[in-house]
Amino acid sequence: MKVCFALCLSLCVYLREALAESDSNSILEDKDVLVLTEGNFERALKHHNQLLVHFYAPLSGQSLGSILEFREAAAALKEAKSDMRLGGVDVKKEKGLFASLNVTTIPSIRLYLSGDKNNPVYCPDLKNSASILTWLKRRKGPSAEIISNLTQLEKFIGEDELVVLGLFQGLEEGIVKVFYETANDIADLPFGVTGHDEIFSKYEISGDTVLLIRKAKPDKQFEMGSSTLKKDLFHFIRLYEMELVTEYNGVTASKILNSVVLNHLLLFINKTEDGFEELYLAFKTTAEKLRGKVMFVMIDVSEPRNGRIMEYFRVRSEEAPQVRMVNLSDNVQYQLPSDQFDAHTVLEFCLSYLGGKAKPKLQSEPIPENWDTQPVKELVGMNFEKVAFNHNKNVIVLFYAHWSSESRALFPFWEELAEHFNEHEDIVVAKIDVTANDVNLHLGEKYPSIKLFPAVYAERVVPYSGKRKLKPIVTFMKKEIEKAKKEKAKEEELRKKYLNDQKAAVKEEL
Length: 510
What we know:
- This protein is an alpha/beta fold.
- The protein is built from 17 helices and 21 strands.
- The longest helix has 40 residues, at 470-509.
């Protein structure tokens, strides 16, 4: 009886521990996406032979779009009763998991197969749910549609504005494999492949070639050789998939942002006004000369759906036509310094930019009427340098984005800091909306960020990266201000010595 009781007790303890373990490692779902954590990641790998994982930062603008598209793809797979499961990792919450998996890009997508967490398949940067589903489909089956006759060809090239057609002598071995691998990574375009003689004849092609067919007509071609690499074909397709001048809209937006060409020349113009055709032709003429170096994008200011992109670049419809250059790696803007929009002027501007001679456009809101009457001073582009680089003041500045909840959450703390130093005439607490005002300063990190401009003669900037609480930031400021006082005293000594030496030299001459 005692033995039986002991066995029952042991069993109860075992079951309780097992249930507790199961509970702690349980995998919740959010809109059909598994919520993955450091505690349940290994379990998810064991349970799901194919696990596509999305690593994201919830407050990031880029991540927000990919989160929504990832959820849509998950719902579609669930409805199709697919074996593939989709999971998400919030890298802000799961820093340990993020670090252990060596994820370096956010947002990013990885495919984990057969429970192997050390050798994931890296997913290309897919902008929408359809591309995610196409990429997964191509991995399981053929990555390109086999075109076996002219009738099938006509149907294939007529269904989409742009298609990629590979013409190869062999469809299973050799250089065609590079074509299939490229098709796997470009899931937002239709790929077809053929070895049919009549199709070779139709396009007057004899060797292995890849055609870009736009609106059912051949546009560009790329000859494949034994030394051709996937990156070569990938670059060709991404370079020529866009027209010489691409109009910005809901369909083209992701392709524009995903382009291999980072320099974008933007023409803000009203398509309904007189003179549009002439300006567009000048823009297109210039685009032909700089293909591969600059992408030419047209934004119709009369289109209501373009309001957000115009707000981002701070362009009003009444200011059109206007030409801006922007590089996607740093988002610094350059404006055409002329009201002439002929092909020669636009080309000269582009060449000046490419040669590093163009000057960045610095934008500013108007200086607020009572900008300096409150404890926290309101800075804009026009008064930023005058206030920040005042050698008689120690200026602490909060660089914020008005749309960022993380930024707005710091405003009460910033008011508290300003009240703390209210009696100190040599200390200024200020803030500036850097989404509406340009400053000639490399901020480095994302918004919000905090920087101290000490009261020294040199233009020095000291970033603050400590806790955003009153005591640590006050300690930091006092330490830096004390250092600045000593440095300034040395600078003044040197200045006095220099002036005395100059006076002595003048006396000797007299």
